[in-house]
Amino acid sequence: MIQMKTPPLRDAILRHLTYSFGKDPEHAILEDWRMALSYAVRDRIVDAWFKATGTTYDTGAKRVYYLSMEFLIGRLLEDGIVNLELVDEAKSALAEFSKDYHEVLADEPDAALGNGGLGRLAACFLESLSTIGCPAHGYGIRYEHGLFRQSFVDGRQIEQPELWLSQRHAWEFERPEVRYRIGFGGHVTNHGETVRWHPAEEVEAEAFDTPIVGWKGRWANTLRLWSGRAIHPFDLDAFNHGDYARAAAPEALARTISRVLYPDDTTEQGKELRLKQEYFLTGAALRDILRRFDNQFGDIRKLPEKVAIQLNDTHPAIAGPELVRILHDERGLPFDDAVEIARGTLSYTNHTLLPEALESWDESLFGRLLPRHIQLIDQIDYTHAQKNPSRTQSMRADHQVKMGQLSFVMAHHVNGVSALHTELMKTTVFEELHRLHPDRIVNETNGVTPRRWLLACNPALAGLITESIGESWVDDLEQLERLEPHIQDSAWLDRYAQVKRENKVELSNWMGQTYGLHADPDMLFDVQIKRMHEYKRQHLNILEAIAHWQEIRENPDAGWTPRLKLFAGKAAPGYFFAKDIIRLINDAATVINADPVTNKYLKIAFLPNYNVTLAERLVPAADLSEQISTAGKEASGTGNMKFALNGAPTVGTLDGANVEIREHVGAENFFLFGMTAEEVMERRTVESHARKAIEADPRLAAALKAVREGRFSPSEPDRYRGIADNLEGADYFLVCSDFTDYWRAQREVDAAFKDTQGWARMAAFNTARSGWFSSDRTIRGYMHDIWNAKSLLQG
Ligand code: 8GP
Questions:
Q1: Of 691, 268, 723, nearest to 537 (Cα)?
Q2: d(CA 38, CA 13)
Q3: Measuring from atom 14 of ligand 1, which residue has the nearest CA?
Q4: N or C of the chain: less Cβ packing under 10 Å?
Q5: Catalytic machinery residues
Q6: Which ligand 1 atom is at minimum distance from the Cα of 417?
Q7: Under a CB-based contact definition with an 8 Å cutoff, are residues 626 and 527 in contact?
Q8: 121 lines ligand 1 (CB under 6 A)
Q9: Alpha helix locations (H) across 594-657?
Q10: pLDDT at 4
Q11: Known catalysed reaction(s) (predicted)?
């Protein structure tokens, strides 16, 4: 490998400004500076990347492939700078040119190639894989438009297309030489033993590579995203006949496949284009994986020994039948051997038990698009039934193809994402398959990368921690326990509290400048940020706020704890109930914030366009983390971990990873309320459970009445009748039944917050005891329990 001397960052920036972008410092615009800095940082990442790739080849190590329809990576420049420990150098280099570091960083578009938790987890995993030095690739789709941009008009959510590629993007390397043909439709021929699929339509998948660097630049892996291209991009004949639209049609059609990210989180719509995207990603990834494997190892029977493919939910589940098709139809292995090899290579993560999220495809659509795969699925299903005579559920029931069951049968391990979720998998959706394969389900509780979610987003707290215990916590987060003795020291605790206050001041200033929202940093900052969904119960939060407001009005001098309630989150464009909840929060905020009697004590704001960057601002400044889903519904949560790590105690239910967070931080540092998953199931069987809860709690009744009667929508009093009817009627997510206990927990929060020292102690224990929630720990779990993969870093 060529060895080159690394120039100082300042020189590298200037060099790129001049020779990569053709600008001198006098004429460079902000974007030029951002690009020049990015290229200077990228050069160093590339050095680490080449070295890692070389080591992986030389050692013949097993490789991990993470297939995911979503990678919610956010901005990458700060990530690179922080991981390469270039913060000070970058700041002073830019200062030499009179450029502000933060302004330059803020110019980068936020790559939102994901919806929420599942996509952000994939991004944290990539960073942890590199930090650990596990040879890995992420495979996804290079969507031209990521998750829509959200704004509010009269409190209503408006969606606009997201355009992250309209600005220059520094991180990817186009690989025009890496292209694969992906087919759809057509027919299957059968000549004796030889079965062949003849697709009717083909597009090309072209690779774009982004290096992902780990802590201290010791290792870098690749995120390879596929973009759709036409095989014959231009119809010259049509052009020559003056039909310019038809001439360009093939390219437009092929590009459609990677044009947009589906904006649904935890709902499946069964759309044809979505299935095409799934096969496009999976087909291209498998060809790429097998090409690399063939070049290096040759003997296909060694595939499970050298390759681990993780399916991020069922979206890439077609990998099972596709691998069998390649091994059996194309390479001539016996069917049973092909299935064995595929199963030895694949594993599957389940991220939700919500029935509406479990993928199942109409067999006629599926068979039309993937005629050979549906035959193979039938054969896989048939052999599985033969080997397991007590099986009652087929993956091909009701004229559907059930991707959850297919994934389970084709995977050597299936994992849940928190202890509770994994146990529920065994007793609900996968009960029968778990009985037949009792060793297949394992748990890998989620985690978050401490580089982004503490070191980069909360430099003040990171600084205090490093000063107190050294910097080893950055890639060994459980070292944070060593903060515990410091918590007993009141001077240290004051500094801890001071850091939180500074973060709150910074957020207040930013909200003031950006939204004209003026918040007193001494208020309790109560934050709920996540996708909008009934099971996450943002409506429970706003109902409690309304009840609280009514109570303050009645008795303004009762010594209330001042509170700022912050919300942020997007609703799927077709999820009208969730959109109504957004509007209700905005309408309630308008009325409540304008109330001179109460607004010293209660303010509400819904910040638009929630994304990774906004989370990075809010998490360090939060006092209280709202994790209030109906127990049994949130598979894990990862926002909950970010808040705890940054010193915001949780008010939450025993759901998902909240259970483990509470175990780790201690019950006395967590505000628990609500029914358990078991009690939830029982409560649903109680007739008129909502009505009974409302009758028992006059505060709840009064809050609902205000919503129903249009207190927050005087120009349209009926606006929220739908919400009121739902809550007073079926109330599937048990908002009413959990309300009273939620109210109680919130008043405990109020009281606890008044004791400044006591609160700081609670917050500090949350930080000190959150080390286990590092995604490094999670990835080590996958490497050990599922992939049988090793780190290639020494020591
Ligand atoms: C989410 C879960 O809702 C969340 O609890 C968990 O922390 C996260 O995955 C990471 O494991 N699930 C999804 O985002 C999800 O299932 N999305 C697919 C249906 C699109």
A1: 723
A2: 8
A3: 118
A4: C
A5: 351, 530-531, 536, 638, 642
A6: 11
A7: yes
A8: yes
A9: 612-618, 639-645
A10: 67
A11: [(1->4)-alpha-D-glucosyl](n) + phosphate = [(1->4)-alpha-D-glucosyl](n-1) + alpha-D-glucose 1-phosphate
Q: What is the pLDDT of residues 503-545, one digit of tens each?
A: 999 999 999 999 999 899 999 999 999 999 999 999 999 999 9
Q: Are 605 and 511 in contact (CB under 8 A)?
A: yes
* CATH code, 253: 3.40.50.2000
Q: Check whether residue 500 and residue 391 sit in a common domain.
A: no
From the CB of 637, is ligand 1 less than 6 Å away? yes
Amino acid at 783: M
207 and 310 housed in the same domain: yes
Q: Residue 338: pLDDT above 70?
A: yes
| Stretch (H or E) spanning 341 | helix 335-345
Q: What residue's CA is closest to ligand 1, atom 19?
A: 266
Residue 501 pLDDT level (bands cut at 50, 70, 90): very high
Question: Which residue's CA is the nearest one to ligand 1's atom 13?
Answer: 118
Q: Answer yes or no: do 103 and 146 share one domain.
A: no
Helices (H) and strands (E) in the chain, counts: 33, 23
pLDDT average, residue stretch 194-199? 96
Domain of residue 355 covers 62-75+114-446+779-787
Q: For residues 441 and 504, state if they share a domain.
A: no
Q: What is the DSSP string of 159-171?
A: EE---GGGS---S
Q: State in Å: Cα 312 to ligand 1 middle.
A: 10
Q: What type of residue is 594?
A: A
Both 454 and 417 in one domain: the answer is no
Between the CA of 266 and the centroid of ligand 1 the distance, in Å, is 7
Residues 103 and 162 in one domain: no
Joined tokens for residue 103: 């302004």
Domain presence at residue 356: yes
Binning pLDDT at 50, 70 and 90, where does residue 3 land? low
Token pair of 445 as six digits? 């509780």
Under 8 Å CB-to-CB from 87, ≥6 apart: which residues? Answer: 81, 459
Q: Which two tokens stand for residue 442?
A: 């394992």
Q: What is the mean pLDDT of the chain?
A: 96
Are 563 and 549 spatial neighbours (Cβ–Cβ below 8 Å)?
A: no
Per-residue pLDDT, 187:
98
Looking at the fold, whether 280 and 234 belong to one and the same domain comes out as: yes
The predicted pLDDT at position 288 comes to 98
**Contact 116 CB / ligand 1 (< 6 Å):** yes
Say how many Å lie between the CA of residue 631 and the centre of ligand 1. Answer: 15
Please tell me the residue having the least CA distance from ligand 1 atom 15: 266
Protein residue with least CA distance to atom 4, ligand 1: 637
**What average pLDDT does range 732-747 have in this prediction?**
98
CB 334, CB 427: distance < 8 Å: no
Polymer length of the chain: 795
Q: Is 634 in the pocket of ligand 1 (CB under 6 A)?
A: yes
Q: What is the pLDDT of residue 357?
A: 87
Considering only CA atoms, which residue is closest to atom 7 of ligand 1?
637
Report whether residue 778 contacts ligand 1, using a CB cutoff of 6 Å: no
For residue 118, report the distance from its CA to the centre of ligand 1, in Å. 4
655 lines ligand 1 (CB under 6 A): no
Spacing of C-alpha 54 from chain mean position: 30
Residue 322's nearest CA partner among 180, 432, 475 is 180
- Inter-residue contact 416 to 386 (CB < 8 Å): no
Amino acid letter, residue 469: I
Q: Is the CB of 422 under 6 A from ligand 1?
A: no
State how far Cα 389 lies from the chain centre. Answer: 39
Contact 483, 645 (CB under 8 A): no
- Domains in the chain: how many in total? 3
Residue 84 in domain: no
- Averaged pLDDT, 662-677: 98
Q: Is 313 in the pocket of ligand 1 (CB under 6 A)?
A: yes
Q: State whether 589 and 722 are in the same domain.
A: yes
Phi, psi of 649 (to 5 degrees): -60, 155
Among the atoms of ligand 1, which is closest to the Cα of residue 268? 19
In a domain, 80, yes or no: no
